[in-house]
Structure formats: structure tokens, C-alpha cells
Write a structure and sequence with these properties.
The chain folds into three domains: 239 residues, Multidrug efflux transporter AcrB transmembrane fold, CATH 1.20.1640; 119 residues, Alpha-Beta Plaits; 84 residues, Alpha-Beta Plaits (2-Layer Sandwich), CATH 3.30.70. Helices cover 59% and strands 9% of the residues. Strands 6, 7, 8, 9 and 10 form a five-stranded antiparallel β-sheet that branches. A hairpin with a 4-residue loop joins β8 and β9. The protein is elongated, with a radius of gyration of 29 Å. The two termini are 35 Å apart. The relative contact order is 0.12.
Length: 598
């Protein structure tokens, strides 16, 4: 391989504009095709085999779940009054409700204003007004996500903002529409990381040109890779979060791989080699490490397929594509850029360059390396103990997905979440949607409703809906605890493992639990169950790749063990900070949250 890489690197440095031209043509074709025929990235969180997925299918059959998105408009009087005793509050509510109903693409809304007009009891029974009359909720139904865009969310936000002007009500917004289209500030983290990389490379190389080449290559590869995602959607649905993940991984590996090559190239130049020869040897040596390192990263990312979750597999494919582009660019485009730079790579420096043939090393790091090597066993044991200590919290790992309660109170979604929890109970932010296939035994409906109502983890049960044509009964159960509370997960498990089997024993009817709370819980459980297999598969495949690279057993074994310890320590720190709350104030975390499944 080294001989092939040497020839590639030398050719690229000798004919740089030819190589750069080929890359430019590829970039123009990909970007042009992406703009002309590229498809939108699609979010599909359906996971085959989960109980919540079966519930979703039954709900769709019963048309209890149109597949569209929902939003909530949550209102409360600004004074101490209630909707029961304040005519102004009721009038303002009716005005907001009418405005929401008239928004483009809104299919329908609930009617808290009409329920209040029918009396206090009717309003409370409807579930759209809290028992104390302080909180009212307008639930808004939208069509499927493919028929919507960020403009629909902006329109709802504008209505909410205008509704608060000279109004006796506080108006807050939340719901699935925000999850689909509310974009976190993008680019900020990447720009900070890029700025740090510029500073580090400038200090390390002492040259603006040497610093700029890795940055330029990484940005070019990242832009090309992200543009190609809209074309990959013809083969597999790429989730909307894939570009952000690709940016994090792509910038890291792109700069890292380029750093290897530029460092080696400058060393060869310092030995007096020509630019072409230096670039060829750099690609033959450091480039070989880049190829194997990139292969290990691709294996690790594609290992997401082991989890058995389609959208994770699709994201892994997209990100792996970015890594492959970075590897190819590092061994072809970068040596071409080195050829263009020539011996000027050390010009415009911050410090004096070394004399030809002389290599410099940091005295401090050299001494530290010798010290560690001399006391290898002591440092090996000490580092292992520290890493194992950091890994210990993994035993309490809980996978899931944070809800709006984890957002800062500066966000309207968080304020809406708190109002709903205060008015209707903490479980109202994550109701359980129970779907029952009663096509062969409708007699189980009443006993099942009674059993669910009697469960200690259920605060209330909504009106039963039965679609006799398809034989599906739908029941909304409100837990006593918040969606992120572990007690809620225990309630879901108990209903499935104890309550449903007891009531349905001997009956062909089957009950399943859906809704966002159950979906994220099921997904977290599935990823958690497959996590050991995923880690084992990645380490095993990486071990085989390293065996091929080093033609040794001992070095790959050491690398595998170190990889396992470092991954365990990283997960342990995540659990300690995000689940246990250690130091969460330092990063602005409002409350503890489960570790995101992906």
C-alpha cells in the first residue's frame, strides 16, 4: 500500500492543478446535482419490532393518529384570576383560538373556549382547562411533516407574540412542530472548534500557510460531503441531524488527518528533500496511517447498524461517507496543495524555521515522554485505575431523549411545559397512548380500562375511543410522574408486563403503549440492550484492521483495551454530568436528563 500511496502523493505534488481541477469538477457536479435534484432530509423515528411501533400502526389504522404534527398553545391569566371567573380571560382565549384555527395548514384545534362556554364541569372534563381554571390548552393539528416547513412554525410564533400584546393572558407555545423545525443555533460550536484549531495549528506549525492547508482541506471535504447527503437520500432516508453530526466528526478527522501529512511533509523538507519527493514520502508513511485510521472510524460509525434502529444506521452511512471523503482528500488533494505551496509552506511564520536537516522537539514533552517510559508500569496501573473509576457510573446508564422540561426557562417551550405540569399534573406532558386490537374480542375493553385506571402510576384516563370498523380501541392514560422520571418508565413496564397480560389472559386481543414517552423509552431500551454488542463488534473489527496494519497481535490488543477504557470513561463522565447532575450548572444544564440514544 505504501508504494501506491507514494506514487499517488508524488503525482499529486507534481501535477497539482490537474488534481485540484478534478476535485473542483467533482465538487461542482455534486453541489449542482444536490441543488437540482437533491431531496430533503427525512426524519423517521419508526423502529421495527418495538411495542410503541405496534401501537403507532394500530393508531394509524384507527385514524386516531393521522401521522401529522401537533402543537400546543398554552394560556394562563396574567393576574391571579381564572378562566372560570374572568370574562376578559375567556374572550382573549376565544380570540387566540380563532386566530390559531385560521393559520395556514392547520387542520383543526381543540375548543377550550367552547368548553368554558358550556360550564366549568364541561371545561374540566374536556381536558383542555385545568381543574383550578388557571391553565387552558389549545391543541393544534397539522398535516404530515412533508407538507410543512419552518415557515409554519414562524407563523405560529408570530401569532403567539402578537397575542400577548395588550392581552390579559400569558401565551406560550410547544409541541412536535417545534421538535421538527426549531433549529438550535447552528455553526456556533463548529466555528468555536475551528477557531481553536486555527490557534493550535498556528502555534504548532508557526506558519500561516502550514496552518491553512489542513483547515482548507477539511472545510472543502466537509462541504462536499454534506452536499452529497441530499443525493444519498435516494438510497436511504438521511435524518435531519446527520449534517450536524457529520460536521463534528468531519472537521475533527479532516484536520487531524491533514495534520499528520503536513507535519511529516515539513520534516522531509527540513531534511532537504524536494517538494515532490517529500509529499510522496509523507503520503506513503503518514498517509498509510490516515487510511487505516479512517477505516477504523468508518467501522466504528457503521457499527451503529448493530443497534437495529434504521435512522441511526442511515446517519452512520452519511457520516461514514464524510470520513471517506476526508481520507481520499488527505491522500490526493492535500499533496496537491502541498505541491502548490512548495517551499513557501514555512513562510509567513510566527517563529524562525529550523535549519535544513535539523529536526526540533519540545524539550518539555521529550522529558515527559522519557519519564513515563522509565516508569511505565506505575503510570499504566495508575491510568487504568483512573479510567476504571471514571467508567463506574456507566452501571447507571439510562438512555432516552430529553423533553422540553430540560430546556432553559428562556424558551417558550419550557414555560409551556411548566404551565401544563402545574395545571394538569407532571404526567400531562407525556401521556401514554394505549392502542388495543379488539377486532376478535371487544369484551376486553371495559376490564382493561378499569385495570389501567387502578394502576398506581396512572393519574387519569381520558375518554375511550373505539373504531369498530378496524377493531381498535384507543385510550389516553396520564401518568402520575413526569416523562423523564424513572417511575414513568416503571409504569410503562408494569402495564406491559403485568396489567395487560392479566386482563388479556386467554383473549386474542392485544394492547400496546405508544406516544412520545413510550417511543423514546423503547428506543433507549433497545439501544441499551445492543450497546455491549455494538462496542464489542466495533472493537473486534478495529482489532482485525490494526492486525493488518501492524502485522502484530500485541499492539492491536493494547489499542483495543485502551479504546475500551477510554470509551467507558467517556460514557461514565456523561452519566455523572447529565444523569447525576455533577457540575451541570457549569454547562448551563437546567435539570438532569437521560443520555440521548444516538
Amino acid at each position: 500500500m505504501s508504494h501506491v500511496l507514494y506514487r499517488v502523493g508524488r503525482f499529486a505534488a507534481r501535477r497539482p492543478w490537474t488534481v485540484i481541477g478534478v476535485w473542483a469538477v467533482v465538487a461542482v457536479l455534486v453541489v449542482g446535482a444536490s441543488g437540482a435534484v437533491g431531496q430533503k432530509l427525512q426524519d423517521s423515528f419508526v423502529v421495527p419490532g418495538l411495542d410503541s411501533t405496534r401501537a403507532t400502526r394500530l393508531l394509524t389504522d384507527a385514524q386516531s393518529d393521522s401521522g401529522g404534527l401537533t402543537a400546543q398553545v398554552v394560556l394562563t391569566p396574567l393576574d391571579d384570576g381564572t378562566f372560570f371567573d374572568s370574562a376578559d380571560a375567556r374572550a382573549a382565549l376565544a380570540e387566540v383560538q380563532a386566530g390559531v384555527a385560521d393559520l395556514p395548514k392547520v387542520l383543526g384545534t381543540t375548543d377550550p373556549a367552547g368548553a368554558l362556554a358550556a360550564g366549568r364541569k364541561a371545561a374540566t372534563v374536556s381536558g383542555s382547562v385545568s381543574s383550578d381554571g388557571r391553565v387552558a390548552v389549545i391543541r393544534v393539528q397539522y398535516p404530515v411533516v412533508e407538507q410543512l416547513d419552518v415557515g409554519d412554525l414562524d407563523t405560529l410564533k408570530q401569532l403567539g407574540a402578537s397575542a400577548q400584546q395588550d392581552s390579559p393572558l400569558q401565551v406560550e407555545l410547544s409541541g412536535e412542530l417545534f421538535f421538527a423545525f426549531e433549529e438550535a443555533p447552528t455553526g456556533v460550536g463548529e466555528m468555536i472548534g475551528l477557531l481553536v484549531a486555527v490557534i493550535v495549528l498556528l502555534v504548532a506549525f508557526g506558519s500561516f500557510i502550514a496552518m491553512g492547508l489542513p483547515i482548507a482541506m477539511a472545510l472543502f471535504g466537509l462541504g462536499l460531503g454534506i452536499s452529497s447527503m441530499s443525493l444519498i437520500t435516494y438510497l436511504v432516508d438521511i435524518p435531519s441531524f446527520a449534517p450536524q453530526m457529520a460536521a463534528m466528526v468531519g472537521l475533527g478527522v479532516g484536520i487531524d488527518y491533514a495534520l499528520f501529512l503536513v507535519t511529516r511533509h515539513r520534516e522531509y523538507l527540513a531534511q532537504g528533500l524536494s517538494v515532490e519527493e517529500s509529499a510522496g514520502r509523507a503520503v506513503a508513511t503518514a498517509g498509510q496511517a490516515v487510511v487505516f485510521a479512517g477505516g477504523a472510524v468508518v467501522i466504528a460509525i457503521l457499527g451503529l447498524a448493530v443497534a437495529g434502529i434504521p435512522f441511526l444506521t442511515a446517519a452512520g452511512i452519511a457520516i461514514s461517507g464524510i470520513v471517506l471523503i476526508m481520507v481520499v482528500a488527505a491522500v490526493t488533494l492535500l499533496p496537491a496543495l502541498l505541491g502548490v505551496a512548495g517551499t513557501r509552506i514555512n513562510r509567513h511564520g510566527l517563529r524562525r524555521k529550523p535549519a535544513p536537516g535539523r529536526l526540533t522537539a519540545s524539550v518539555g514533552w521529550l522529558r515527559w515522554g522519557r519519564h513515563v517510559s522509565t516508569n511505565a508500569w506505575a503510570y499504566a496501573v495508575g491510568a487504568t485505575v483512573c479510567l476504571l473509576a471514571l467508567t463506574a457510573p456507566v452501571l447507571d446508564l439510562r438512555l432516552g431523549f430529553p423533553d422540553e422540561g430540560a430546556l432553559p426557562d428562556t424558551r417558550t417551550e419550557r414555560r409551556a411545559y411548566d404551565l401544563v405540569a402545574d395545571g394538569f399534573g407532571p404526567g400531562s406532558n407525556g401521556p401514554l397512548v394505549i392502542a388495543v386490537d379488539v377486532s376478535k374480542d371487544p369484551s376486553v375493553v371495559d376490564p382493561l380500562v378499569s385495570a389501567v385506571m387502578a394502576d398506581e402510576g396512572i393519574a387519569a384516563v381520558g375518554p375511550l375511543q373505539v373504531n369498530t370498523e378496524v377493531g381498535v380501541a384507543t385510550l389516553i392514560a396520564t401518568p402520575t410522574t413526569a416523562p423523564q422520571d424513572e417511575t414513568t418508565l416503571d409504569t410503562i413496564t408494569r402495564l406491559r408486563a403485568e396489567v395487560f397480560p392479566r386482563v388479556l389472559d386467554g383473549s386474542p386481543a392485544r394492547a400496546h403503549i405508544g406516544g412520545q414517552t413510550a417511543i423514546w423509552a423503547d428506543m433507549g431500551d433497545k439501544v441499551g440492550d445492543r450497546l455491549p454488542v455494538f462496542i464489542g463488534a466495533v472493537i473486534a473489527l478495529s482489532f482485525l484492521l490494526l492486525v493488518l496494519a501492524f502485522r502484530s497481535i500485541l499492539v492491536p490488543v493494547k489499542a483495543a483495551l485502551l479504546n475500551l477504557l477510554s470509551v467507558g470513561a467517556a460514557y461514565g463522565v456523561l452519566v455523572a454530568v447529565f444523569q447525576w447532575g455533577w457540575g451541570m450548572g457549569l454547562i448551563g444544564l437546567e435539570s438532569t436528563v437521560p443520555i440521548i440514544s444516538f
